[in-house]
Structures are given as C-alpha cells and as structure tokens.
Amino acid sequence: MFCPKCGKEISDDSRFCEICGTPIQQAAPASQPVAPGTAPQPAVVPAAAPASGGILAHIKTIGISAKVAVILALVAFFMPFVTISCNYNDKEEDIVTYSAMDMITMDSYDASDAESAYGTAQKGEKFGGKFNLWITGAFAAGVASIVLVLRNKKTVPVVLDGVGALLVILTGASFDSFYGLDELNYIESHLQSGFYFMLLMFLAAGVLQYLYEKHGPGSPVPTGTAPVPPPPAQIPQQQPPQAPPQETQQSE
What we know:
This protein is an alpha+beta fold. It has a domain at about 55-215: Butyryl-CoA Dehydrogenase, subunit A, domain 3, CATH 1.20.140. Helix content is about 35%, strand content about 10%. It has a three-stranded antiparallel β-sheet with strand order 2-1-5. A two-stranded antiparallel ribbon has the order 3-4. The longest helix has 23 residues, at about 195-215. It is elongated.
C-alpha cells in the first residue's frame, strides 16, 4: 500500500510511514461471510453464575428453620409466661405462675389459702380468670402463619409473624394494668421464659421467612446476573432444485 501523505510505497502491516512518519489507519477485518440459508448468530452475553456461597447455599435450611421457629413460638404458649408474687408483712412469695394458654382459657387461681401471704391479705379472692385479647391474637397469628407457610403462601406469613411479636410485647407491657395489679402495691408480676422465648421465635420466624421468600425458589433473578438467551432459530438451508435427468437418445 501507499502512504496517504507522501505517496511512498510501504508495507501493508505498517502503522507509520517509514518516510514521513504519518500514522497509518489499519482497515477493520472483514466479517466472515454467512452461509446462504442460515440466520446470523446474535452475540450472546454470558450469564453471570449465581454465587455458590453465602445465603443461597443454605436457602433450603432457612426455609425449614422458618417453619420450625413458628412451631416453637406456638409451643411457648404452654411455657411459664408470667409469675405473680406477693410482698405482705415482710413476707415475699410467688403465688401463681401463668402460661399464655392460661390467659386464653381464662384459668384462675384460688387465693383463699390462709397460709399464703396473699390469702392473708385478701382472703377468699380469686386472681385471673380474665380473657386476654392480646395474647389470643398472637396465638391466632402464629397458627395462621404456619398454615400459610405450609401452603407456600408468600408475604402474609412474614406480616403475621411480625403481628404476633407485637401482640406478645403488648401482652407483657399491659399485664399489670389489664388485670388490675397496678392498684395493689403488694403484688408484683415478673415475665418468665415463655414470654422471651415466644417473642424471639416470632421475630426469628419473620426474618427467616423473609429471607427464604427473597432468595428461595420462585424469587426474582438476583441482581448482577443476566438471563441466558434462547438459542437462535436455525433456518433450514434450501437445496437448489435439481435438473431432471435427460434421456439419452439412442442412435438409430
């Protein structure tokens, strides 16, 4: 080829003119010809492989753990929820321990025993026996959550677990005022293991279920990965028509 400036002949692979030093722009390589009858192949962007570690590696375990946490939250309704103690005449004693299920079934405690400090202070009275709406709502939320989780419903179980945790907190915070204990200066209530375990399981179930729904089966494609395009359709190559065979003429 020749230099476009000085016109001297130079080699085809030169990047600069050997005479005047003018940069030589190389022509782009010609594209490969496409065979007749076939569609051009589109450029395929390789899809990023999903991360093999992290939360995706344990997504099945997270889904199972979410179900177990809701079941344990319901089991906690039969554990000691609150203990009521009496301080009277310099004598302190625990007079009754209630589970969350006792507050749902309106179980009561007979305090007429004269040997107890509370029986001496308030002879013949019964404590408890009052339906608690807050803890009943928490139990209903837990039952509904596990039913919907087993039926593979989404979003609603997470909300129900959060509602259950909120109702458990309201039950513990309003226990004294709900049962009128704040008017008795010699009566105290103490939250027990059932309250804390139930609250923890409701919160754990909500978080685990949220992670399972976000990263589990049926979730959207994670950010940073490209969907794999379908293979291009191949156009069948048409064969050129063949000429009919010619009959040979026999010589007479």
